[in-house]
């Protein structure tokens, strides 16, 4: 019997499964609803009577292409009955654009419904499946009809230029210093940033910098260091710049000019096809200020904590020499220079990279200096393994330079490029011509078996009469110009030792000159090691050593400065560390103990340190320092204080941020660098809505700005529900996906309601309860709730004294007046009249 019972149950389940998959006309017993005095005829359930049938109308659906959502927000899609109760989805031009069809596929698209809707039936292999229950419209499209897409990149058809607006980004650093033996404090303030305006796809930018105070920074000054206008050209994967710009060449040494430039932009390519950005490494003995300049223009200025630092977020367009200045708390300055270079100039088969410019060379003071020139360079992928590149600079009869080179993929042996350049320069006398050549070799290799990378290795040799554009301009003013470059050698090597949780890094830069025996050199070596001891896990050990060798222009001899830094960090919990450190710089030895921690999703960081400093014949000093950084929704704040018993007391404060204003409103915000890309989020006048893990919060106008946006990449920004106030709720999608062009001000609106949450029973003036499934909306048309059985509604965003509307579909039925005094713990009885 037990077996028969089990068999009967199994058979019953089997029939349920089989019959459940057979489509029948369905009848519903509406008697299950407790309708009170309402009529069953008021309930429209006809849409459920046939399996798969979609009632004509407008539906809010997410569009999926091959299983992937094309937008974080749902689309309002009309379903139109065409014949014999057959319903067809109306795909608008906006949806078609975001799908990312190839040009060949778009040529097959036809129009219907008065040219409002697009018909895809002539594209072979496409299947359109609406799923109202899942609120999706699924499109299955053969990949041959689609542009290239990956998880972090979308094709140009999905890019947005944003909205018109104004912006000001700023970075302010201030210091107060009191040195031993002095009775007064010295103060200094330096600042830099960008002023910008966006109109359509065009961006106007003014870079500024200045300083004030009575320290070594000199007299008060302000300077617009660069003014320019640019726009992206997605069809060419290029960027057009007008105004003051830099010829950031991959072949020639860069120079500044005023004119017009057009260059291909790797950021418009999928991530796997993009180039690389330079990286600056060094060691700070104290909480130091690091300033990086390119052609005397500040491109980076920030305070870093004591220890090794690596500046990784520099602009990928930077080329040539970077001047680095590390200003310690005691006023000491360490200076060194790095040559930034690209990896070997290889281009994929059939792909062309190029840069073109026309204008006149520009010096530091905005004045053009030198003849009109035209310059261009290109790289063409010939085969899978070979690339050919070259370029030319023509400046009337005074200066010209030509270059040609090849790049070769050596497979397991890495990649190699070699090129030769020839310059011809006429300085004072048309009959006096200087001709010279320059040879360059670059190499890059990843040793997978050894878990090591030679990120870049390069060698360059220039003849004595070879001249770059900048050297030519210097020689026009001074025929005996200095620093005639001879040899340049650079290398960057990383090696991992996975089996012992260790890694090493080596960076070397060596430059010699024709007109002096000395050289400029910079070396840095870093070692990182993780280990366990006793009950402590993931203890980290880091060691860095640097040597800067620099020449004295007067004595023509080398001088150098060595430094090292050793730190052991012991985890004491999540993002909390005990730090032991030892360092040497300028023959002074420092030993410290400290504590550091991160809070609030890594938006806050702080550290405290105490120790002793000795050596260099100056006795032993007690020292202490503290460092704190905080990212608020309105700015980034860094504060530091340090004390040395016999030398100095230093107070520092840095504030960085910006303000962005559009026709929809404006907001102060954190981040913002050089007028870069940002997203404005509008919550329609509701403030205190946290966005992107609290990096931005909407203000009293309901405006918040997120600056952690990557150009030409898929960016997802979401409401932070962990920090969302209890009386605020989103009524639609709380996730925003954007792909913005460079410098754009993106704009997205979120539907948010603010107010009480409560249960209410809604009765009509005639005593009948409102019908099942009717909507309750506020004056903005935002849905606050849907009625269930017997007129019961769960309402969100209810405010005292407001008027709500009960509607059936798009038709308003009656209005509700919310009383001034509400007890949200009880069911509220409301009358709809």
Automatic annotation (TrEMBL):
Keyword DNA repair: no
Keywords in alphabetical order: Cell outer membrane, Membrane, Signal, Transmembrane, Transmembrane beta strand, Transmembrane helix, Transport
InterPro entries in UniProt: Fimb_usher, FimD_plug_dom, PapC-like_C, PapC-like_C_sf, PapC_N, PapC_N_sf
Membrane topology: Multi-pass membrane protein
Transmembrane stretches, start-end: 7-26
Any one GO CC term of the record: cell outer membrane
Segments forming domain PapC-like C-terminal: 761-817
Domain PapC N-terminal: 27-173
Keyword Membrane recorded: yes
Domain of life: Bacteria
Locations listed in the record: Cell outer membrane
Family per similarity comment: Belongs to the fimbrial export usher family.
UniProt protein name: PapC/FimD family outer membrane usher protein
Organism of this sequence: Photobacterium damselae
């Amino acid at each position: 019997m037990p077996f028969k019972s089990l068999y009967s149950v199994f058979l019953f389940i089997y029939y349920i499964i089989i019959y459940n998959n057979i489509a029948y006309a369905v009848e519903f017993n509406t008697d299950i609803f407790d309708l009170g005095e309402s009529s069953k005829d008021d309930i429209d359930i006809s849409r459920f009577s046939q399996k798969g049938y979609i009632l004509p109308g407008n539906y809010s659906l997410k569009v999926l292409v091959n299983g992937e959502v094309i937008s974080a927000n749902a689309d309002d899609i009309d379903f139109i009955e065409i014949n014999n109760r057959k319903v067809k989805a109306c795909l608008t031009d906006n949806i078609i654009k975001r799908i990312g069809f190839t040009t060949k596929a778009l040529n097959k698209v036809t129009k219907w419904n008065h040219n409002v809707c697009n018909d895809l039936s002539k594209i072979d292999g496409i299947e359109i499946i609406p799923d109202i229950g899942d609120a999706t419209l699924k499109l299955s499209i053969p990949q041959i009809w689609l542009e290239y897409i990956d998880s972090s990149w979308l094709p140009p058809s999905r890019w947005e230029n944003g909205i018109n607006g104004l912006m000001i980004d700023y970075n302010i650093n201030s210091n107060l210093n009191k040195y031993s033996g002095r009775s007064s404090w010295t103060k200094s303030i330096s600042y830099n940033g960008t002023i910008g305006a966006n109109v359509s796809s065009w961006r106007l930018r003014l870079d500024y910098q200045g300083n004030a105070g009575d320290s070594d920074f000199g007299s008060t000054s302000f300077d617009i260091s660069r003014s320019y206008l640019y726009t992206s050209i997605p069809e060419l994967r290029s960027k057009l710049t007008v105004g003051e710009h830099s010829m950031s060449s991959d072949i020639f040494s860069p120079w500044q000019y005023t004119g017009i430039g057009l260059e291909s932009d790797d950021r418009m390519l999928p991530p796997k096809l993009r180039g690389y950005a330079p990286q600056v490494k060094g060691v700070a003995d104290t909480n130091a200020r690091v300033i990086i300049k390119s052609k005397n223009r500040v491109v980076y200025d920030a305070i870093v904590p004591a220890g090794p630092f690596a500046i990784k977020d520099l602009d990928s367009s930077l080329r040539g020499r970077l001047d680095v200045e590390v200003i310690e708390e005691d006023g000491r300055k360490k200076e060194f220079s790095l040559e930034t270079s690209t990896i070997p100039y290889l281009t994929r088969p059939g792909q062309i990279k190029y840069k073109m410019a026309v204008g006149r060379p520009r010096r530091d003071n905005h004045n053009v200096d030198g003849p009109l020139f035209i310059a261009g360079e290109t790289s063409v992928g010939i085969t899978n393994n070979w690339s050919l590149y070259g370029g030319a600079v023509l400046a009337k009869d005074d200066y010209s330079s030509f270059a040609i080179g090849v790049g070769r993929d050596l497979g397991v042996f890495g990649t190699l490029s070699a090129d030769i350049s020839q310059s011809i320069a006429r300085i004072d006398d048309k009959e006096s011509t200087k001709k010279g050549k320059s040879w360059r070799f670059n190499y890059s290799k990843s040793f997978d078996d050894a878990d090591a990378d030679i990120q870049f290795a390069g060698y360059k040799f220039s003849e004595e009469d070879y001249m770059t554009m900048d050297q030519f301009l210097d020689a026009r003013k001074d025929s005996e110009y200095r620093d005639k470059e001879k040899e340049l050698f650079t290398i960057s090597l990383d090696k991992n030792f996975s089996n012992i949780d260790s890694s090493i890094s080596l960076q070397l830069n060596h430059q010699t000159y024709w007109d002096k025996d000395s050289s400029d050199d910079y070396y840095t070596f870093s070692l990182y090691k993780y280990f366990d001891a006793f009950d402590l896990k993931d203890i980290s050990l880091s060691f860095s050593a640097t040597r800067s060798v620099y020449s004295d222009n007067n004595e023509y001899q080398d001088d150098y400065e060595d430094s090292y830094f050793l730190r052991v960090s012991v985890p004491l919990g999540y993002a909390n560390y005990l730090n032991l450190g030892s360092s040497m710089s300028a023959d002074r030895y420092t030993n410290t103990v400290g504590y550091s921690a991160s809070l609030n999703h890594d938006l806050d960081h702080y550290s405290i340190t105490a120790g002793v400093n000795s050596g260099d014949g100056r006795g032993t000093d007690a020292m202490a320092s503290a460092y704190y950084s905080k990212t608020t929704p309105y700015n980034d704040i860094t504060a530091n204080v340090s004390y040395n018993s016999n030398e100095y007391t230093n107070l520092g404060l840095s504030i960085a941020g910006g303000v962005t204003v559009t026709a929809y409103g404006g907001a102060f915000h954190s981040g913002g660098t050089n007028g870069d890309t940002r997203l404005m989020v509008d919550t329609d006048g509701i403030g205190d809505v946290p966005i992107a893990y609290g990096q931005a919060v909407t203000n009293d106008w309901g405006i918040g700005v997120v600056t952690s946006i990557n150009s030409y990449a898929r960016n997802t920004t979401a409401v932070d529900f962990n920090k969302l106030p209890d009386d605020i709720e989103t009524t639609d999608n709380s996730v925003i996906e954007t792909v913005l062009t460079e410098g754009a001000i993106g704009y997205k609106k979120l539907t948010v309601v603010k107010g009480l949450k409560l249960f209410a029973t809604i009765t009509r003036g005639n005593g009948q309860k409102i019908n099942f499934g009717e909507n309750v909306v506020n004056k903005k048309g935002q849905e606050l709730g849907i009625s269930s059985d017997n007129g019961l509604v769960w309402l969100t965003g209810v405010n005292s004294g407001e008027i709500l509307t009960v509607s059936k579909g798009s038709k308003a039925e009656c209005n509700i007046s919310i009383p001034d005094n509400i007890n949200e713990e009880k069911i509220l009885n409301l009358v709809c009249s």
